[in-house]
Every structure is written in C-alpha cells, then in structure tokens.
C-alpha cells in the first residue's frame, strides 16, 4: 500500500538504535528478492553480517553488533548481494555510522526531540514542510557537539492529522469500512512509517546517531486512551490499535534496548546517566482510570531502587507530568463534567482526573531524588521546576516540536496554559522559559568532581543566521540528585 507522501517512500535503509560502549543495535529494512548484508568497518574491525527479513515484519529486522571498540566510529553500509559482489542500497550522502560510547566518560551529550510532522497541505497535494530545517540543524549541531544519541519522545508520526486527509489512516479505514470494502490497519500504519521515516533529513539522523524511541498518541490516534471515540471509530478501534502496535514494534521499538514480552517501556545506562523511558499509551484507559499499568509501575519502582547510586537519572515521559494548572485540569475532567466542551488535550494530561493518582505517585518518587524529566508533546519548548518540600525539585525539560507546525494560536494557548501552572497546582511550578519555534533539546553532562556533575539543557532553534541555542538551564547533580538550576 502506498500513501501520497511527497518523498519517495522508504525502501531499503537502516536506523542505528540502542548503543553502548561495546555494541549497537542496527535496524534494517531490506525488501527485494536478493540477499543483503550489513558491512561494518572500524579501525580494528571489518565484518559482514547477513540480513534476514521478510514480509511478515514489513522487511525489517535488527542486528546486534557485539564486541566493538569503545568510543570508536564504525562505518556502516547495507549491500545487496549479486554475482559480481554487490551494491550499496543506501543513499550516497547518508554516511551511516555507529559511534560507540566511551567506557567511563567525563562528558556525555545527547539530544531529545518530539512531534515529527514534516508535511504541509498544498491544495490537493502534500509538500515537505520548511520546518525540516530544524531537523537538518539537529544533525549539524549533534555532530559538532559530539552528541551520541537522540531520544525521540513521541509523535514520530501522526496517524490522523486533520490537515492531511489523504494520509489520515483513521479516515481511510473508516471510509473503507463504511463502504464495506476490505482494509488493513497494519498496512496503513506501515505505509505511514514509510512516509514519515522516508524524509531524507530524518534518514540522516537515523543513520548517524543512536536513536531511542517511544511512541505517544500520534502513532495511534490523537489523545488515544483519554477520550471516548465516536461510534464509527469505536467499531474499528481494536483493529487499528493492533495495527498501530505491530507497526510501532517493527519500525520503532525493535531498535530500542531489549524488553520482556509485551513491554514497551525500557531502561538503559549511558556513561554517568541512567534512563527510564515510560510507555504512556499501551495501558492508558481513562474509563478504567489507568495510565502506566501496575506491571510498568513495578518496573519503574525497581529501576528507581536499582539506580540509587547513579550520578544522574532521567525519566522520559512523552507527556510532561506537571505543566498545566493541576487542580483546574483535575476538576474540569472529573466524571460528570461535560467532556465535549473541553479540548481533548486536557483529558490527555497526567493531571486529568482519571490519571491524577498516578501523577501523585510519580511525583512522590521523583521529588526526593532529583530525577530529571524529559518530555515532548505540547508543541512548545519549555523548562520548569516542580518544587516540593525542603526545596527538593524536579526539573522538567521539554522539547517539542521538531517539525510539526501547529497553528500559532494553539501554540500560544499551550504556552499560556503552561504559564498558569503555578497558579493552580498544589506544588510550585517555577517556569524558566517557553519557546514557540520548532526546536530540539541538547543535554550535556560534565564531571565536576568525585560526586558532582553539571547537567545542562539547551533548547535550539533555527534563526535567520542558522541554528542557535536560544535557552539554557544549568543544574548540578550531587550524589545523583539534580538540584536547583541557574538560568
Ligand atoms: Fe505532537
């Protein structure tokens, strides 16, 4: 199945996924009848690994590269074999590579992004959005700053964009079902990934840095799990969610660190930093008042206990835990309050009545420990601090959107709501900044002594003179607790 995207849909390609000091996961897509191999070349290594994949996984697979040299660059190539040797099937300017982490680095830099919608409507057709300049800037800045990996914190694609009806999977499925025609949810979601991941700027990012991903509602349907569906969508919802999940596993989750069973949440370490990436969509069900699900809570609490000695800890939550007027959102979303007059985004907050108990549980874990929260979702960049007892605080660093360009009114509304958070929340929410332009986040950790690391968040945008860090928050981690920031 093909959808009318402006760039050629994804055929063969690769994504560098989870990386460590000694290894890397590399995701590969290799359709076609001939065999392929992945060639890996480093200063002390030259390998060729056979690639095996078929239509049951949309021609995708992952290879684990083991026993690589730490802190070393290895060139990658994907080659289609033939009688005369073979030919590369990657675009010539891709320069795919794996850079392993250093074993005990005194510095670590990584980027984080969210909300990738690189298309705009142009009459009946679809064109590439000018906001792709921000994605190109990310590749440039991440290279210059020696960032080793990128966290993609949700909405790596949008399954039901209002403004692009020709690539709205829910509309297409609903219409086909209404006409009594056959339709295939998995094929629809796979076709979306081939469009969103096929954009050359994104392919360059995928090929040159580690890429760790977590889905949000974009990958399923707007506000999935938080609001009741209209009747005609309710009828197709189970099949759509199954298709979304399958395609997400194939295109995104497969190159994350290994997980158990159906789990999509994951934890990993990189240099001095430990990460837990929350899955806010698999188990979300406002009707059952569930957000993470008990199994994920147990895993998260175990990670908290197991990483108490880590120099710096980050939890990634696609939706920021507390950036709206908490009491107001909770009250407005209580059962019995008319849900149709409220924007669905309110119901999608951690503060919403259905999920509020879990917000309290999360903050009780994070506040005493100075864990930093990384988030996306809200289509503005922002930084704030949730201040608890004894001046303990949780930094929330938000980068959104990398390429999505919602209306200015909706971004202003997002900023206004976020600015009001301090007024109607039980905890102080101290805002550092809000930024409306497309952006990406860069985090840098530098050792400052035996027990101390500086932890810096920069928000980058593209201005008339090129990329620039428009905002910066500096904080210090002492014995693993990231404390007061200095703007
Ligand atoms: Fe988004």
Give the topology, please.
Blueprint: E1 13-19, E2 24-29, E3 36-42, E4 45-51, E5 60-65, E6 73-80, E7 87-88, E8 97-99, E9 107-113, E10 119-122, E11 125-128, H1 132-144, E12 149-152, H2 169-178, H3 185-196, H4 200-208, E13 210-213, H5 231-234, H6 237-251, E14 266-270, E15 273-277, H7 294-306, E16 312-316, H8 326-332, H9 344-347, H10 356-366, E17 372-375, E18 381-387, E19 393-398, H11 408-419, E20 428-435, E21 440-447, E22 452-463, E23 466-478, E24 481-486
The chain binds fe (ii) ion.
List keywords for this structure.
487 residues, alpha+beta, Purple Acid Phosphatase, chain A, domain 2, seven-stranded mixed beta sheet, 24 strands, 23% helix, globular, binds fe (ii) ion
Q: Which CATH class?
A: Alpha Beta
Helix content: 10-25%
Q: Can you tell me the CATH topology?
A: Purple Acid Phosphatase, chain A, domain 2
Structural class: alpha+beta
Count the E strands. Answer: 24
Q: Number of helix segments?
A: 11
Distance between the termini: 50 Å
Which CATH-level-2 architecture?
4-Layer Sandwich
Strand order of the largest sheet: 13-12-9-21-22-23-24
- Calculate the mean pLDDT score and round it: 95
Bound molecules: fe (ii) ion
CATH superfamily: Alkaline phosphatase D (PhoD)
Shape: globular
Q: How much strand content do the residues show? A: 25-35%
The Cα radius of gyration reads: 22 Å
Tally the structural domains. 1
* Main β sheet profile: 7 strands, mixed
Detail the poorly predicted runs.
none
Task: Provide structural commentary.
With 487 residues, the chain is of the alpha+beta class. It has a single domain, classed as Purple Acid Phosphatase, chain A, domain 2 (4-Layer Sandwich). The protein has eleven helices and 24 strands. The strands form five sheets. It has a seven-stranded mixed β-sheet with strand order 13-12-9-21-22-23-24, with helices on both faces. Helix 3 (185-196) packs across helix 6. The longest helix has 15 residues, at 237-251. It is globular and about 70 Å long. It starts with 12 loop residues before the first strand and ends with a strand. The mean pLDDT is 95. Fe (ii) ion (FE2) is lined by residues 115, 155, 218, 377, 379, 401, 404.
């Amino acid at each position: 199945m093909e959808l009318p995207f402006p760039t050629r849909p994804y055929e063969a390609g690769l994504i560098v996924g989870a990386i460590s000091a000694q290894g890397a996961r590399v995701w590969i897509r290799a359709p076609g009848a001939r065999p392929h191999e992945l060639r890996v070349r480093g200063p002390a290594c030259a390998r060729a690994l056979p690639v095996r994949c078929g239509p049951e996984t949309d021609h995708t697979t992952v290879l684990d590269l083991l026993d690589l040299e730490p802190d070393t660059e290895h060139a990658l190539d994907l080659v289609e074999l033939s009688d005369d040797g073979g030919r590369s099937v990657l675009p010539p300017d891709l320069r795919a590579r794996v850079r392993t982490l250093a074993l005990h680095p005194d510095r670590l830099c990584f980027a984080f992004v969210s909300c990738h919608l690189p298309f705009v409507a142009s009459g009946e057709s679809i064109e590439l959005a000018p906001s792709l300049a921000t994605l190109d800037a990310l590749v440039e800045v991440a290279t210059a700053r020696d960032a080793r990996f990128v966290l993609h914190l949700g909405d790596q694609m949008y399954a039901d964009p209002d403004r692009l009806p020709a690539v709205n999977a829910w509309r297409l499925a609903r219409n086909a079902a209404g006409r009594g025609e056959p339709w295939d949810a998995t094929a629809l979601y796979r076709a979306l990934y081939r469009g969103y991941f096929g954009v050359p700027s994104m392919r360059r990012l995928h090929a040159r840095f580690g890429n760790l991903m977590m889905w949000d509602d974009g990958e399923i349907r707007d506000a999935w799990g938080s609001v009741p569906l209209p009747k005609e969508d309710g009828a197709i919802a189970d099949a759509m969610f199954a298709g979304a999940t399958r395609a997400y596993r194939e295109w995104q989750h497969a190159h994350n660190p290994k997980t158990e069973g159906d789990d999509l949440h994951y934890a990993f370490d990189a240099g001095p930093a430990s990460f837990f990436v929350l899955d806010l969509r698999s188990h979300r069900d406002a009707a059952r008042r569930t957000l993470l699900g008990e199994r994920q809570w147990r895993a998260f609490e175990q990670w908290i206990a197991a990483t108490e000695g880590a120099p710096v800890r980050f939890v990634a939550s696609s939706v920021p835990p507390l950036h709206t007027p908490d009491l107001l959102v909770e009250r407005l979303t209580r059962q019995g309050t008319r849900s149709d007059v409220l924007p669905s985004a309110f119901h999608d907050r951690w503060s919403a009545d259905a999920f509020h108990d879990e917000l309290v549980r999360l903050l009780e874990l994070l506040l005493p420990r100075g864990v930093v929260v990384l988030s996306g979702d809200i289509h503005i960049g922002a930084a704030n601090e949730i201040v608890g007892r004894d001046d303990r605080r949780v930094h929330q660093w938000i980068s959104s959107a990398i390429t999505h360009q919602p209306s200015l009114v909706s971004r202003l509304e997002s900023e206004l709501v976020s600015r009001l958070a301090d007024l109607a929340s039980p905890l102080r929410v101290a805002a550092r900044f809000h930024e409306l332009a497309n952006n990406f986040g860069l985090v840098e950790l530098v050792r400052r002594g035996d027990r101390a690391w500086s932890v810096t968040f920069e928000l980058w945008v593209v201005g008339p003179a090129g990329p620039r860090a428009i905002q910066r928050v500096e904080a210090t981690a002492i014995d693993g607790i990231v404390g007061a920031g200095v703007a």
